Amino acid sequence: MKKLRTYYTQFRHNSNQAMERKWILPLALGSIVSLFLLFLTTLTSFDGSPFLFFYHPSAVLGGSSPFVESQLKPIPVSTLPPPPRFAYLISGSAGDGLMLRRTLLALYHPLNQYVVHLDREASSEERLGLQKFVKDHQVFNKFGNVRMIVKANLVTYRGPTMVANTLHAAAILLKEGGDWDWFINLSASDYPLVTQDDFHYFSDLLHTFSYLPRDLNFIDHTSNIGWKEFHRAKPIIIDPGLYSLKKADVFWVTQRRSVPTAFKLFTGKRC
Ligand SMILES: *[C@@H]1O[C@H](CO)[C@@H](O)[C@H](O)[C@H]1NC(C)=O
């Protein structure tokens, strides 16, 4: 009250003719806006409840309780779609052991399936450390849903060894992981931005995917490979991961081959 008074007094002191004229337009606009708001509050929505929710007497006065939580009714269990199940591959290389554990713990949910892989560039101590971590973890043991590819492969980023490693993990998950709905391959440094399962906020991955058709595919693919026939199918690319024990990038040789005819080539992107 004291403060309000002070402002008011200052306004009066500073006012002069010009100031007063300057204030006419905002004042008129303010009045129009207030009148419009007043008019809106008299409108009602289709079900007869007041249009502006803040003017709802029970929302303001809180008929029984002012909190919206008390007005939420739990959804009957039978109408909930069955929770989706994810199969994860989390892979890393030398020095990624701890990061991979952190990602695995953040992604962990008893309903999902997990395969972890540290490639052959990681030291055997590092791989043993991860193996022990998976083996000794009480919850992983209880649900038996985390597996490690112990016989490590050498994986070259972008190379066929990367695809082979991904397919290897998918094969393990298909064979031993039971029924799951979606396969997600991540690297140790991919830390999730949403939780797997968040009971209170319903903004988590499991909840979001509950309502999606289970045969939905996030990989867009086509056999119409266009320019890629020349630039991707004909060059010969060597992946050192196939023959060497040391990691090196893929490289191109000068010869080209004709497009293979034994199988059809597809190209895809994640959508
Ligand atoms: C997932 O696997 C595909 C095929 O091997 C690969 O191209 C992609 O980079 C992988 N993604 C991650 C995050 O490792």
From TrEMBL:
One of its GO terms (molecular function) is glucuronosyltransferase activity. It is found in: Membrane. It is a single-pass type II membrane protein. It holds the Pfam family Branch. It comes from the Eukaryota. Its main location: membrane. One of its GO terms (cellular component) is membrane. InterPro entries: GLCAT14A/B/C, Glyco_trans_14. Keywords: Glycoprotein, Glycosyltransferase, Membrane, Transferase. PANTHER family: BETA-GLUCURONOSYLTRANSFERASE GLCAT14A, GLYCOSYLTRANSFERASE. This is Uncharacterized protein.
